[in-house]
Amino acid sequence: MDLGISGKKALVCGASQGLGYACAQSLVNEGVEVVIAARTLVNLQQAQLALEQAQLQWAQKNHSKAVGVHIQCVDVTTQQGREQIKSTHPEIDILVTNAGGPASGDFRDWTRSDWLDALEANMLSPIELIKAYIDPMISKGYGRIINITSSAVKSPLPALGLSNGARAGLTGFVAGLARQSVANGVTINNLLPGTFETDRLRANFTHQANAQGVPYDRVIQDRLDKHPAKRFGQAHELGQACAFLCGVHSGYINGQNLLLDGGSFLGS
After folding, report:
1. What pTM did the predictor assign?
2. Domain boundaries, position 45
3. What values do phi and psi take at 95, rounded to 5?
4. I want to staple 228 with a disulfide (CB 3.0 to 4.6 A). Which of 15, 171, 197, 263 is the partner?
């Protein structure tokens, strides 16, 4: 399916690896010019090289020109980082917000500072990015905003209280704004990933194994035994879902929370 977005321009946050990179890759494979943002320069440069190669392949296949892969080595959770992106790329057609979740733990141990950090990264920063770009999208009559949040929005986990609270706040805000922008061709949706096979998931399993004093493989197998799909999600699966929501055919999908968890959530 041609998603009709070749030549569009996208900003993808947290895109040097993991789910953010997968979204950027899927967009590149549709002929989209991408700006990838992250905090670590070497990872960004490696991602840029790989994405440029994929873009060249798309261009050759479609007898077109590669439109470019740009990097922004910034922290999007800071005002300075967001302003730097905006000044360099004042208008985009597609915005994908994405930030790693805060640490797990017991709410009794969290300070006010912990809560403010979680809100800044997982609620306020996405809102500020949306604020920066939504009006130009509305003026052009086309825009796609995708927020990568978490399956914990629908199925909160006790140890992820910081994430539960911050991401639920973003979800509530988006629910209202999406109904205001859609008439102007701008949709806003959220992707809610469950357990995806990423470096972050592996790090979490390592921490869990060490805390419990059990082998790493046992932690993984215990999780898989309880999973309906008996496997973890692959990053490209979320990337493809993201690309579809960014396409011209998805203009009637708006204000939704798309759960990608292999059926783990016990609801309909």
Report:
1. 0.94
2. 9-194+236-257
3. -125, 125
4. 263
